[in-house]
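Handout, tutorial session.
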Amino acid sequence: MASSMASMSRILAKDTTGSHPWSSALCGQSFFRTHLGFRDGLSVACDLRSRGVVVARSALPSPVVRASRSNIFVCKAEAHVSGNIPSSAPKEISQYERIVELLTTLFPVWVILGTIVGIYKPSAVTWLETDLFTVGLGFLMLSMGLTLTFEDFRKCLRNPWTVGVGFLAQYFIKPLLGFAIAMTLKLSAPLATGLILVSCCPGGQASNVATYISKGNVALSVLMTTCSTIGAIIMTPLLTKLLAGQLVPVDAAGLAISTFQVVLLPTIIGVLSHEYFPKFTEKIITLTPLIGVILTTLLCASPIGQVAEVLKTQGAQLILPVALLHVAAFGLGYWLSKFSSFGESTSRTISIECGMQSSALGFLLAQKHFTNPLVAVPSAVSVVCMALGGSALAVFWRNVPIPIDDKDDFKE
């Protein structure tokens, strides 16, 4: 789900004693550079070229770790930091940033509340119908693009195997799982189509947050989400046509056009704006985090509200296949990573990327391109299952230490 979620991290160092996972490295105020944006919440970087220190620049809700043009070294949210660090205290974040941090950290709570409101008082959220829903999702993708640079895409070339395995998990394992579950449980044609459609959607930005919480590789997570988002214009309509075309008519061309308009075009505009109008972009994205929190909550609650009556009558039938899809995707994504000889941090990252996707996009495509309203129901249920399942897995992994000598599979 293109979510504006989770918390903002400062400069995080791995505590080798394992006693405090939130340990922060200190940087002199003269070296600090902060950046607040919707996709990455608050980014903090230390320019320590003269000291050669490796630091982390973490960005959440959807944590972006970017390489700057001034050769600032960046790494994943938890990093090994050398001992020669300035002793001055880090810069305090503003009250606004603290509020955004709190609101985004509580994302699963907002999803639960949104679900309750959607089911028992649908009129409070159903005003966000197809056209407004499209605008809202497009805004989230634009916000994501505003935090990206061309350098983020160059990283794909430096990490072909790691990103490739993640892409394979997202667009091969997950769609086949959706198809297999739909056929095994003998779902009706529209519900089976909806399950297949949501399984073919790209990774959601909520996965970046879950990766951060689980001590995974945030930079890799962001890169994989970006790549799957770009690939969605081809892969989502193609796979939906191949796997669900035998069940109901699938307008692959229409799906591709809508995916381009809602996902790829806003992302491209955001990237170009950041690249060629950086000062203007920096001003804009200071306003997006709070808007993103509100929009994301609405984009989660609205699908539930629009299918509330169906959920009341067929909810039990729908929860099992959707939950099974996410659980199996988490498990197989992790297994595939271990089979590929990746380290624990990378394996957790790929597992979460495989198990969490943009359910909001699936809901929108189902509404616009399928006549039967039941096709949209699995995507609505997926919003809740994805958020709760991903959060639970992330919290579990957070309490499972990563080996100190864990293999690093990501090249900055």
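The second record follows below. Compare its token runs with those of the first.
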Amino acid sequence: MLLAAVLCSTTALAHEVPEEEDEDPPEWTQSLSLEELLRVELSTPSKRLQLAREAPGVASVVTREQMRRFGWTTIDDILFSQPGFFPSHDFERTTVGARGLWEGWNNNHLLLLVDGVPMNDNDLATAFTWDISPLFLVKSVEILRGPASALYGSSAINGVIALNTLSSSHTLEDDERLEINNEARVRAGNLGTVAVDAVAVTRSRHLSAVVGFQHQHTDGFSYLSYDGSERTDATGALQRFLVNNRRDSSYLFVKLEPSGVLRGLSLQYHLQDWNHGTGHGWRHWAPDVDGPMRDRRHIAVASYRSRPGSPLEQEYVFKYQRHEYDSHVRFYPSGAMDGSYPFGVTEVLGTALDELFGRAQLSGSVAEGLSLLGGVEYSATLYGGDSVHYATADLSDESRDPPAPLTPVRLGPVYESILGEPLSNVGAYTQLAWNRLLALPLSLTMGLRYDLKFFHYRDLAQPGTPRRFKSYDQLSPRIALVFTPSPVFSLKFQGGRAFRAPAPGELFGSNTWILKANVEGMRPEQVTTFELNTDWSISPQLSWRGTLFHSRYENLIGFSDGNVVDNLLSQTNVGVESEFLVEVDLGGIGRLSGFGNYTYVHLLEGAGQSGGLTWAPAHQAKVGVSYQRERLSLALQGRYQGDVLRREEDRMNPLYRSLRPERVPAWFRLDANVRYQITSWAAAELEVSNLLDTENYLVRTYDLPFDYRMEGRRILGSLEVNL
């Protein structure tokens, strides 16, 4: 495909290029044509505004209007429409796999940015991509596929997801004092689902403000499933238990942007609060009671960015994050282990982690066509102990017949080894960008970043718990060449290395069954990736892009048996991604637009079955089409995922082999969205996911008797009001 595109470059050169017009960029409220969409600039690949075709790496942008048209309300919805990404599942949550790499519960191989500020969790480095991170506050989403640690540091292994939030860009006239744009939406549907969100974007002479709130609740999709307990019924057959995904969440967002002499300053506050379950149980015993599992994050951000185009552009960021837990984890039901736990086992934990993050960055032009960027970052994670920590059993005694305590057993700090000890991270990075290299339509981008994670901790396994020191460091290079012989055609080559340092929750667990410490044995994850990409606008109505990639993953971290976090495996994947965007103007009867993509991944080296890729699909295909006419829009999206192979060690127990097939069968899902603009200020929408109500499954790793059933048909109706 890439060779064909290169051979067609003469055709691309002959393609008539529209004259550049000096016009303002489209507002986020507008519907863009394909030609306009491809002219939208994004900054994530290089931290400077560029067209996706000219930027290093493989990047895409999704507008607010596209999200509305297809009914995408979560980051997952967007990613699962993109090439390379696919749904994984672990315990109670859906995670994001990428390019043949299954993703576990921590979901920490993507870096999530909000207005350029990293928003991954400070405990497990999780990118919260599911419905607890809503899109009502977002005007556009930039997606960078592949490694990006040369600019962004840890966690940018599979890519970077950048959310650009709403702002008021309107300039007030002399007779105007205040501008207010309000938007509210109510959604309700089956499975006990209700959601309300509202956002107000205002601007006065001296201040622009955005205030938004969302609350949602769902009873979740329930189904009968085996678990890992090997409990049997009266006939001796394995029992099945009801698994549900009941959850609710709330989100508050506030952004203030002064004008005048303070222009460039931004103040943000995020409050994220959610409740969830444990799915099949965190020890694979389906819980008999649903204890509260509540998380809350407070994030405050102060940032300053000088006006783009200044001789010396400056950026300064300060962030404070606090993650609070109120967890009642039901590990074993009453009477578990042949009566060894007559009251079951519940662990109750109330704790919190704090993080401070800072960045200083400078960039500017050092010569014609030559720009330089550099910055430093520092973060510190702090643990000050637990507000409450106890269990209904002695967790230190895992003998076959432990004594049943009459009162709850008080437990020590969950991160006892770092109590009062900060975990520090320092990063320094630089990037050189050279346009028109050797007087050719060739650009070169070179980046290099050094990261150091260091901390003191108490060795709880040794007498006297001596204080020890440990550090991890990583050098992350990147080089990218972009050949652009025409504004409608580019050929890219990129090579880079990314990493992810172990997070606190992967290193220091103690006095708990939730996780176990492995500070001495843990190593950072690494990936080295080479990409070759072609991007071609065949016509103003058709654009195609193809990517070849080779990725070597080392020391991948995950939960092994017994909730121990360890470096589980290394593997090498190669693959191809092909994607197109198309638009057809139907004249007076409307406009038709669509997308399609196909991904193939092959395992070169690593854990597999006869050399085949395991735990992830080798084949994926996705297609979406939308029709718009005046006040009506209709959208359909289909996703196909090929068979998923298991590993040989996942089929060792003869009792389980008959309960699930050797491979997870392929599946196809169809989603639909209908939107009608009732008036200029009101719209109604009907969203149906899994329209055909097909029964599909996602792989459960390891030797267990079940896979995760995907959600059945979900129907949501919504009413939206704009003022």
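Points raised in discussion: The two ends are 48 Å apart (CA to CA).
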